Amino acid sequence: MGIIIGIIAGAIITWFCAWYFWKKKPPHKEEDEKKIDKIEKKIDSLSGDFKIYIDGLSQSINPVKIPFRRGIKSMEEFRWQEAISFFRKALKEARNNEIAALFNIIGICYRTIGKSDQAFDSFEESLRLSIIYKDSEAEAAALGNIGVIFRLKGELNRALKSHEGALKINRKIGDQKFEAIQLGNIGSIFLTKGEYITALKYYEDSLKIHRQIGNLTGEVYQLNNISLVFEAKGEFDTALKYLENALKKSRKATDRIMEGGVLGNIAIIYGKKGEIKTALKYLEDGLKIHRQVGYLEGEANHLGNIGLVYENLGELDLALDYLKDALRINRELGKREGESNQLGNIGVIYKSKGELDMALEYQKDALEIAQEIGYIRGIATNNANIGWIFEAKGEYQKAIDFLTKAYELFAKIGADPDHDKIFKYVEKIKKDIK
After folding, report:
1. Which pLDDT score, from 0 to 100, does residue 9 have?
2. Which terminus of the chain, N or C, has fewer Cβ atoms within 10 Å?
3. Would you say residue 117 lies in a domain?
4. Is residue 262 a contact partner of residue 243, using CB atoms and an 8 Å limit?
5. Cα–Cα dist 15/36, whole Å
6. How far is CA 192 from CA 50, 198, 295, 382, in A?
7. Boundaries of domain holding 356
8. Would you state the torsion angle of the CA atoms of residues 162, 167, 168, 173, taken in this order, to the nearest 10 degrees?
């Protein structure tokens, strides 16, 4: 028994950030703007949660503008740590609102590589400066981004307060795109709480606005989010209908990154329906697309999920090959969260092979990383998996300790599918020990 972290299920709905560029458009800068727009369109495929605010940095003085543009180019090519270095160089000469904008974009980069604490600190600094300089749009961006971090850490009430603050500002300044995104973020909080009717209402309100303003990308995000509600309710066929619509829309938008992510989400549903070979086909199609466009993060996600499929099919050595490839890519990209996920998944495979000491080593490595970056779901999952390993080794008190910790964390962030099973098992072995 073990908990495997599925990667693709959250690749669009949870982690696709809407990267929004607010910019000044003087006529003599049209060529620069076209370059930024092109990059924006590519990066806009990554998530529907976060907001980048850049305050016209592309038009600043050269010591700010040049490293900023290089940082944006690095983001386009998914080189996040390099992007952070360029933005920090720009910070040395930036002034007033530009500083707030740069801290916001640095926070996005940190979150993308799984460094939630550094992301939070950057967003808080952006918020502080935006209030000082009375920049409402920057304030809304920072509040919304802080809300996402709170949600990921399981602090749902603080997350809700931040998103509601951002929503209020976006409505006041007439920013419909990010009004819609905050509605979606609030929906995700209620989904985590298990309040499916309320979550669905917020997602549908968000979807309505995205359709009104013709934002296909936002429409795809919310179709995915709505599918999550039906997935959580066990209504897999309805979830599939929404995902198939999302796939159609992503193809209409000619967005290959987003298309590959939707294919992965469809695969997750087929996997839950027990149609493993169909799931594998969708994952392989998504992998092919992300390799074609050079999206290494997506490639790693698909490799990891293909590994999980082969684990389900009992082909453990083949599963290890895929998972280790996914681990290698995450390490190359500096994606600590992905590294933690794959270490844990590899540990589950070794447990299935009966190599308990090797399994324990991988799970402890995964847990160490999850704790370093404040990855609560990862911490919960690794604690559970370590508990199952100790149970298999006959060390029942250690099993109880780790499983109890996992149970408490899952209760905080929203029940894992094995949440009730953990509780019942802990109660059983407590009685057995007595």
Report:
1. 35
2. C
3. yes
4. yes
5. 22
6. 18, 11, 28, 20
7. 352-434
8. 130
Q: What are phi and psi of 375, to 5 degrees?
A: -90, 95
Cβ neighbours for 334, distance < 8 A, ≥ 6 positions apart? 80, 81, 113
Report the chain's mean pLDDT, rounded to a whole number: 86
Domain boundary, last residue among 115, 145, 173: 173
Closest to 173 (Cα-Cα) out of 256, 51, 270? 51
pLDDT at 260 over 50: yes
Residues 127-155 pLDDT 10s: 999 999 999 999 999 999 999 998 877 78
Query: What pLDDT, in 10s, does the model give residues 183-215?
Result: 999 999 998 888 899 999 999 999 999 999 999
122: nearest Cα among 140, 149, 157: 149
Whether 424 has a pLDDT exceeding 50, the answer reads yes
Residue pLDDT, tens place only, 61-71: 899 999 999 99
Domain boundary among 173, 198, 225: 173
Does any domain span residue 47? yes
**Long-range contacts, stretch 63-67, CB < 8 angstroms, 24+ apart:** 63/90, 63/92, 63/93, 64/90, 64/93, 64/94, 64/98, 65/90
Q: Look at the chain and report how many structural domains it folds into.
A: 2
Q: Which two tokens stand for residue 19?
A: 């990267």
Q: What is the CATH number of the domain that holds 137?
A: 1.25.40.10
State the average pLDDT over residues 106-122: 88
Q: Cα dihedral sign for 288, 15, 338, 37?
A: positive
19 HSE (CA, 13 A, CB side) = 24
Pick the range with the lowest mean pLDDT from 145-154, 282-291, 382-391. 145-154
**How many Å apart are CA 407 and CA 399, to the nearest integer?**
12
DSSP 218-248: HHHHHHHHHHHHHHHTT-HHHHHHHHHHHHH
